[in-house]
Target: UPF0125 protein ACFOJE_10665
Amino acid sequence: MKVSVVYAAAQQPLLLSCQVEDGASVEQAIEKSGLLRCCPDIDLKKQKVGVFGKFVKLDSPLKDGDRVEIYQRITRVLDDDDDDDDD
Model:
């Protein structure tokens, strides 16, 4: 079956299509797509994944046509004047 794997990389979003066996997991599709070789900064132990915008686990089975998404880790950097005080 055919699935897509997407990742919003810092430089340019990546969209890869690949063929996987029926019942393949999210993790198997990510590995099969080759995305981990293209983006070594991806850490599946820390980053969330989803299918069509819904969070799923790495062992979740896929269906034909699914779009696997790897989400960026969200970090916030505070400016010097950005604090919790309202004065």
About this structure: Residues 23 and 61 are 5 Å apart (CA to CA). Residues 2-70 form a domain with the Ubiquitin-like (UB roll) fold (CATH 3.10.20.30).
